[in-house]
Specification:
This protein has 10 helices and 12 strands. It is α/β, with parallel strands linked by helices. Helix 9 packs across helix 10 (304-312).
Amino acid sequence: MKKNKVTKMMAALGVAALMLGSLTGCGSSNDTAAQATQQDAAETTTEDTTAEAEAAAETTEETEQPAEETTDKAVSGTITMAGSTSMEKLANAVAESFMAKYPDVTVTAEFTGSSAGVEAVLGGSVDIGNSSRNLKDEEKAAGAVENIVAIDGIAVVTDKENTVTDLTTDQLVGIYKGEIKNWSEVGGTDEAIVVVGREAGSGTRGAFEELLGIEDSCAYANELDSTGAVMAKVASTPGAIGYVSLDVVDDTVISLSLDGVAATEENIKAGDYTLSRPFVMATNGEISAQSDTVQELFTYLQSDEGKELIKSVGLIIPD
């Protein structure tokens, strides 16, 4: 009986030993898995930290890169212009384009006539005097410098109902001197000629009369103070004739040929159409003596961008 008890106790101890061994084995397995997980996590953390460090280094490197140089200068200030009404379209286009290129610059323009513009620049009230004619000797002697920025043609225009499409130079001279008074005298209908022109001091008038050799001898029915006024008067007046800048001609009027040559850019460049004149941006002294802002404007006008702007308003680039 006692032997059986001892045997049972020994068996129980064996089972306990086996269970303890099993538990010990399971514990070792779990510890190994935990260690592996910790190692993986450590490696992942190291990789993440390395990636973040590399990214931070790249960001710092990019931040330390010098800013790209811009092609435009830092230009600021103001530019004032006054003068030819014929140059209004060009002057406004130049002002708008230049201010868009240099937002810290303000360009203003008044349209008071060529002579008034040159007088203003010589008097120091504006930076640039716009003149739609060559400068006079006395203006140059006073210090005005002739900076030709474009070439313009002068178109001779009539109302849309006129049947005459071509005049000789002599006929045009006769009309403006009051020697030819009816369109029937030059191949048209029996209708009185209404001679329209610009006011005294206008660059367009000065160039027109000088080119035809009729200074101070014209018999005007109307002398108007702007290119737009001449266009409107001719378009609305039967029998009217006038002269305007080529770039403003539209389908409200007829542009006459002279001596069989049409008023076109090609004919002006070829020298076949005689009524053409310069567009001058006069300065008081050489361009190099002007403010940096004014100098930059002239540099812009001589650039490819500036030349395209001049051509876009119907003008010709001077050679």
